[in-house]
Amino acid sequence: MNQSIMDIKMKDNLIVEAVFFTGIVKDFDVSLLFEKHPEYKILKQDADLWEKAEILPQGSGVYFNDDLDLTVEEIWKYGKTIGKVSVEPKYEIAYAISSAREEKKLSQKQLSQLSGVTQCDISRIEGGVANPTIETLSKICKVLGLELSVSKTSA
């Protein structure tokens, strides 16, 4: 699973709208968890807890408190796709690199050793929080068999 969440919106009726690095937007109905996991019912009663939800580090899910969270996998698998939006290049790059790395069955540490880019930098790039140089991206792309290019978009 190489999806990551870049943004969330907490909607009425316990719907989490999640925007993924790929630009896919999904709605996840938290009330679907009530029968199997009754502890989630607190979100229906505590508007403050609901509204203050945050994205977990690296876009790995949604955090409510120390006892309640949603994984990116749950939201991706059980959420309803409602659209697609354009995303910043750093998120497209993050998705392309993490997908290619997972496809080659490389850990971030292994990619670091092969590319000469620190594991910390690879993690930050894949998390969409880095602003890598072209040189850094070139090193990573070479190892992963990716082509680094710039193209003109139509206006």
Describe this protein's structure.
By secondary structure, the chain is α+β, with helices and mostly antiparallel strands. The protein has two domains: 80 residues, NE0471 N-terminal domain-like (2-Layer Sandwich); 56 residues, 434 Repressor (Amino-terminal Domain). It has a four-stranded antiparallel β-sheet, with helices on one face.
Backbone structural class: alpha+beta
CATH topology of the largest domain: NE0471 N-terminal domain-like
Number of strands: 7
Distance between the termini: 34 Å
CATH superfamily of the largest domain: NE0471-like N-terminal domain
Q: What is the total domain count?
A: 2
CATH class of the largest domain: Alpha Beta
Instruction: Report on the biggest sheet.
Output: 4 strands, antiparallel
List low-confidence stretches. none
Residues in helix, %:
25-40%
Radius of gyration, in Å, reads 18 Å
Strand content: 15-25%
Estimate the global geometry from the Cα principal axes: elongated
Query: Based on the structure given, which CATH architecture of the largest domain is correct?
Result: 2-Layer Sandwich
The DSSP helix count reads 7
Q: What strand order characterises the main sheet?
A: 1-2-3-7
Mean pLDDT: 93
H-E order: EEEHHEEEHEHHHH
